């Protein structure tokens, strides 16, 4: 399929989301569309998929103009879409989700066998590995995304697949797998529109790149373009991709976790005797494959779940039995990994979400009632400072892009006094310009004496920001290392490989009877050399 967009424009009242967009996708091509949060990428894809009607312009397939009255028309024309926010019914099986809207039936009776076969056929054709009987809500996020891809590919022959921010919630391993799936699809002749703001992924998989900024096409690039070139085109200015920070000056303990244990409803120890300390003036990065207890640790610190044993102290105060509100009042900040569940109330306005954890406090509360003027002023200040792309402070958060919803949370947490901050996946779904800003603010927090626990599945982010790295595996801290530790060492810890600890030289008594330490032996030197050689000399 050859897709061409000519002068495609979408207006919402006086606001122009997309302005005169021209775009061509050739058969079997992976065409990446880069842009900041709120640049108009998702609006453009929703027009192409029939969810939105263009204000003006044309969509042409193989040279013929088409008009879609809804997604059904787009599907019939051979277009499939995997949305940024999945459209799965959690309690349904994989097969049930895939056949929704295109049910396999004989004489009005649904055929479970035919639905299962459809899943298995598409899975086998594209190497997607799915169990048609698995319940979707029980599947990891990366597998749920595979369900969405199979769903998009299992209707009428899909010739163009739209992937809207498909890697926003995936682990690094899942991202690598998805990029390979995309290559397989393109090699089989499927055209792909890959909507993203992740530069390395675009470089790795795209055949050509279109950059959109504030609703306009501003550049056409080759994947050989540097990250700096792509970032500059996206943001409209030079972007610093390296974090500039001075050495940390840790002080007193802000967070002390001792022997923490959390048992899941299924009776599994998801946090298992974990111990961790974070001091003022330092960023401790928690590295690990998602699902190893990070979520439960963060929610325990905030007070959203009650640990089965162990203690959590903030600024030396045991917080056992205190509510999340009390902990927030005492200076705990929290950027949750799941913004939809824990970060925002999507039906509330941007302004209301910006004071969710402060509306009882002055100046937002006045004689027991909400002070609307103070709330609006806070919203106006935060929208300007954090570049939240919204038409109005009164707009519901549900209407924002995922990245802009994340900015609402970041703005809320950084706009009040804090002594300790848990930042879980703080830049997930956020564009390169906003990532630069968030990273600089986290470093600034550290430099004012705040203790920061950074939980991230992005190892690049851990390396860029952390002053000390703690590695979590199976609910335990299995190692604490310096930020210059080679990736292969941290990678082995993350998957539970048995890495022998460095042995300290035995103390030797000197003539005065005091203990001292010998210089490292030749054998230790040889062991270090062998380790370096095994790791490719990457020290």
Automatic annotation (TrEMBL):
<feature type="region of interest" description="Disordered">
    <location>
        <begin position="501"/>
        <end position="539"/>
    </location>
</feature>
<keyword id="KW-0547">Nucleotide-binding</keyword>
<dbReference type="GO" id="GO:0016887">
    <property type="term" value="F:ATP hydrolysis activity"/>
</dbReference>
<dbReference type="InterPro" id="IPR027417">
    <property type="entry name" value="P-loop_NTPase"/>
</dbReference>
<feature type="domain" description="ABC transporter">
    <location>
        <begin position="3"/>
        <end position="239"/>
    </location>
</feature>
<keyword id="KW-0067">ATP-binding</keyword>
<dbReference type="InterPro" id="IPR003593">
    <property type="entry name" value="AAA+_ATPase"/>
</dbReference>
<feature type="compositionally biased region" description="Acidic residues">
    <location>
        <begin position="528"/>
        <end position="539"/>
    </location>
</feature>
<dbReference type="GO" id="GO:0005524">
    <property type="term" value="F:ATP binding"/>
</dbReference>
<feature type="compositionally biased region" description="Acidic residues">
    <location>
        <begin position="507"/>
        <end position="517"/>
    </location>
</feature>
<feature type="domain" description="ABC transporter">
    <location>
        <begin position="255"/>
        <end position="499"/>
    </location>
</feature>
<dbReference type="InterPro" id="IPR003439">
    <property type="entry name" value="ABC_transporter-like_ATP-bd"/>
</dbReference>
<dbReference type="InterPro" id="IPR050107">
    <property type="entry name" value="ABC_carbohydrate_import_ATPase"/>
</dbReference>
<dbReference type="Pfam" id="PF00005">
    <property type="entry name" value="ABC_tran"/>
</dbReference>
<protein>
    <submittedName>
        <fullName>ABC transporter</fullName>
    </submittedName>
</protein>
<dbReference type="InterPro" id="IPR017871">
    <property type="entry name" value="ABC_transporter-like_CS"/>
</dbReference>
């Amino acid at each position: 399929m050859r897709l061409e967009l000519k002068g495609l424009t979408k207006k919402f009242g006086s606001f122009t989301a997309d302005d005169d967009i021209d775009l061509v996708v050739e058969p079997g091509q992976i065409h990446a569309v880069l842009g900041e949060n709120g640049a108009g990428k998702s609006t453009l894809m929703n027009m192409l998929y029939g969810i939105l009607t263009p204000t003006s312009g044309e969509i042409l397939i193989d040279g013929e103009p088409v008009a879609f009255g809804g997604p059904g028309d787009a599907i019939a024309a051979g277009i499939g879409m995997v949305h940024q926010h999945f459209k799965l019914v959690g309690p349904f099986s994989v097969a049930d989700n895939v056949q929704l809207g295109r049910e396999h039936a004989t004489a009005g009776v649904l055929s479970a066998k035919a639905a299962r076969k459809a899943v298995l056929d598409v899975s086998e054709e594209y190497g997607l590995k799915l169990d048609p009987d698995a319940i979707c809500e029980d599947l990891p996020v990366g597998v749920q995304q595979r369900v969405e891809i199979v769903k998009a590919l299992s209707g009428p022959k899909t010739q163009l697949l739209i992937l809207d921010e498909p890697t926003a919630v995936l682990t690094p391993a899942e991202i690598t797998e998805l990029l390979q799936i995309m290559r397989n699809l393109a090699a089989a002749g499927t055209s792909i529109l890959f909507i993203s703001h992740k530069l390395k992924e675009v470089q790795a998989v795209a055949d050509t790149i279109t950059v959109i900024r504030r609703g306009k096409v501003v550049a056409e690039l080759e994947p050989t373009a540097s990250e700096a070139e792509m970032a500059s085109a996206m943001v409209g200015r030079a972007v610093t991709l390296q974090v500039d920070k001075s050495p940390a000056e840790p002080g007193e303990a802000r967070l002390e976790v001792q022997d923490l244990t959390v048992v899941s409803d299924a009776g599994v120890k998801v946090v298992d005797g974990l111990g961790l300390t974070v001091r003022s003036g330092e960023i401790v990065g928690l590295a690990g494959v998602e699902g190893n207890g990070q979520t439960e640790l963060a929610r325990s610190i905030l007070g959203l779940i009650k640990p089965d044993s162990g203690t959590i102290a903030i600024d030396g105060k045991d917080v056992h039995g205190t509510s999340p509100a009390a902990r927030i009042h005492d200076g705990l900040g929290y950027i949750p990994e799941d913004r939809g569940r824990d970060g925002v109330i999507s039906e509330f306005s941007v302004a209301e979400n910006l004071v969710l954890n402060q509306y009882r406090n002055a100046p937002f509360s006045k004689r027991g009632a909400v002070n609307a003027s103070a709330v609006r002023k806070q919203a106006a200040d935060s929208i300007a400072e954090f570049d939240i792309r919204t038409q109005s402070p009164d707009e519901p958060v549900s209407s924002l892009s995922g990245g802009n919803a994340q900015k609402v949370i970041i703005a809320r947490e950084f706009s009040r006094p804090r002594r300790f901050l848990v930042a879980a996946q703080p830049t997930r779904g956020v564009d390169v310009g906003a990532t630069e800003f968030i990273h600089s603010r986290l470093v600034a927090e550290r430099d004012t004496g705040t203790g920061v626990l950074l939980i991230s599945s992005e190892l690049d982010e851990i390396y860029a920001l952390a002053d000390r790295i703690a590695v979590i595996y199976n609910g335990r801290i299995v190692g604490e290392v310096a930020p210059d530790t080679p990736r292969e060492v941290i990678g082995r810890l993350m998957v539970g490989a048995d890495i022998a600890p460095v042995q300290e030289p035995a103390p030797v008594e000197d003539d005065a009877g005091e203990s001292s330490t010998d210089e490292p032996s030749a054998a230790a030197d040889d062991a270090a050399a062998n380790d370096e050689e095994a790791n490719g000399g990457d020290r």
